[in-house]
Structure formats: C-alpha cells, structure tokens
Amino acid sequence: MVNPELLEILVCPESKQRLRPADPETLERINREIEAGRLSNRSGARIQEFISEGLVREDGAVLYPVVDGIPVMLLDEAIRLDTLS
Predict the structure, then answer these.
(1) Is 57 exposed, middle or buried (0-12, 13-18, 19+ CB in 10 A)?
(2) Considering the entire predicted model, what is its pTM?
(3) CA–CA gap between residue 63 and residue 72 (Å, rounded)
C-alpha cells in the first residue's frame, strides 16, 4: 500500500494530474489482459507479471504500477487504460 502522505504529493509526470489508488475492478481487468498476453506498457513491452496495486491518473486514462509498495512513475512503464477490453 502506498503511503497516504506520499499519495498526497504524487502527480502524473506527464499531465501533473493527481493520482488515486486503482480500484479492484480495474486491477482485475488489467490482470485478465496480462493473463491473456495482450497487455503492453506505453513503451510497447509486454507485461508478464500480475499487478496487485497501481495508481490511476485523475482522468482515468493511465495507470502507474506499484511494485513492492513503490510507485513506478516512469512514462514508459505506464499502462493506458483505454486499451483494455
């Protein structure tokens, strides 16, 4: 779980929009796509490990994965949510 104090200051590095924790439904959709081998990050690399936590940009368009409690705030590692089925 991301520290709430950290979450208060984190913003999307691209748009500067605030971030919120991903809801269970979003994580489930992402993990279904990963299991099917259909999900890539913005750099085009196929994602192979399930995501248990992520931060969603305020507009709902992008998710930044959280790995071992650390948000990965790199644009290339972000997942576009509009590509999910």
Answers:
(1) buried
(2) 0.94
(3) 10
